[in-house]
Design a protein that fits this description.
- This protein is mainly beta and 373 residues long.
- It has a domain of 147 residues: YVTN repeat-like/Quinoprotein amine dehydrogenase (Methylamine Dehydrogenase, Chain H, 7 Propeller), CATH 2.130.10.
- The strands form nine sheets. Strands 4-5-6-7 form a four-stranded antiparallel β-sheet, with no helix packed on it. A four-stranded antiparallel β-sheet has the order 8-9-10-11, with no helix packed on it. It has a four-stranded antiparallel β-sheet with strand order 12-13-14-15, with no helix packed on it.
- The termini are far apart.
């Protein structure tokens, strides 16, 4: 019997996006290949980091690509994070531990009229792995693979960025989220909650994990006060914790039985399989995000992407790959996946831009995949 398809699928390859990013660039007399290394998405923008230290920012509303250079040393971008508040902001982290914030130009009255960049240097000792914004854009948190978490206070009116070292963990930072003055940090060994008002650190659960790995955590979406916040945390062995804001585990879900039945697969357009493909013997959860509907959770690591219905205990869809998943981002009803060296996939329950501009969509559907040099 054929595997049931998921309600989420790829409607069309993102030719328009990939065609706007060069496959190679000239560096003096050398031709340098451009690999795509990081990804974030919003309703307004798609942000793609590259191996040459160039940020490619696609404005979805205007169907226009901009590029922003970090300048100086050619340093691979390892993390990007978008924020739309009074101004549009994008934070970038690199392999050498540099963090930069771009304040974008806006045509709207009273908004920023000149591109500005703020730099955070000297505090990270390793590759930046995660970035998290406060909703007003005044706080940026950055974590690295050595376990350091840096807090940068931004004053956009004064053009000032003040970074300080906030936490130093014994293992690398995997994922971070910030909500109601609480920073949720997942490392290779544990998940913790840091209250920025009291500087109190609370560990989720009573002990660190027995096995280290890229297990993430996320807040449940809710308009609530700090004391009502709840957290989902991935655990080894396809287990999921739900805890309160004090790190007390209130519920443990054993998800392994869900994987013993046929798993609905995300339908993708055909692609060549990676060479030397490897899959781990056991499935695991990874980084976490709440997605689309109440109780739906997006989990991903380099080998797999799962959308799970936590309330009804069913798998909505899956993509099981071979170690080539680089970055995953979701917004509204869309999931964007960066795979391999330069492949970006959009999963959704509806085609892109269907309601907004049918004529633009028809152009995208007929575009051949030709990559500029």
């Amino acid at each position: 019997m054929a595997t049931q398809p998921s309600i989420l699928r790829e409607f069309c390859p993102l030719y328009y996006l990939l065609n706007a990013i060069p496959a190679k660039v000239q560096r003096g007399f050398r031709s340098v290949l451009v690999y795509l290394t990081a990804l974030d998405s919003s309703t307004d923008f798609l942000a793609v980091g590259s191996s040459i230290g160039m940020l490619y920012l696609y404005c979805r509303r205007l169907a226009h690509m901009n590029k922003y250079s970090l300048e100086g040393k050619c340093d691979a971008i390892t993390a990007v994070k978008l924020l739309s508040c009074f101004d549009d902001l994008v934070a970038v982290g690199t392999a050498s531990g540099r963090v930069a914030v771009f304040q974008l130009v806006s045509p709207l009255p009273g908004r920023n009229k000149q591109l500005r960049r703020f730099d955070v240097v000297g505090l990270h000792k390793g590759s930046v792995t995660s970035l998290a914004w406060s909703t007003n854009g005044m706080k940026l948190f950055s974590g690295d693979d050595k376990g350091r978490v840096v807090f940068s206070a931004l004053d956009l009116d004064q053009g000032v960025c003040k970074p300080v070292l906030l936490l130093e963990e014994s293992s690398g930072v995997v994922q971070m989220e910030y909500r109601h003055q609480v920073l949720l940090v997942s490392t290779q060994q544990r998940s913790l909650l840091y209250c920025t008002q009291t500087q109190e650190v609370l560990q989720m659960g009573t002990k660190p994990r027995k096995s280290s790995g890229r297990f993430g955590a996320c807040f449940l979406p809710a308009l609530c006060k700090q004391s009502d916040l709840q957290v989902f945390a991935a655990r080894p062995g396809l287990r999921l914790w739900r805890s309160d804001i004090r790190g007390q585990v209130e519920d443990t879900r054993l998800l392994k039985p869900l994987f013993s039945t046929q798993i609905p697969q995300f339908e993708l357009f055909p692609r060549p399989a990676p060479i030397g493909a490897y899959r781990p013997a056991e499935r695991q959860l990874g980084l976490l995000s709440c997605f689309l509907r109440e109780g739906w959770i997006l989990s991903w690591n380099e080998y797999s992407i799962y959308v799970l219905d936590f309330l009804n205990e069913v798998i909505i869809g899956a993509l099981e790959s071979s170690g080539d998943i680089v970055s995953v981002s979701c917004c509204d009803n869309e999931i964007f996946i960066l795979k391999g060296d330069r492949d970006i996939v959009r999963l959704s329950n509806s085609p892109e831009g269907l309601a907004s501009n049918l004529s633009e969509l028809s152009v995208r559907l007929t575009s051949p995949l030709t990559t500029p040099t």
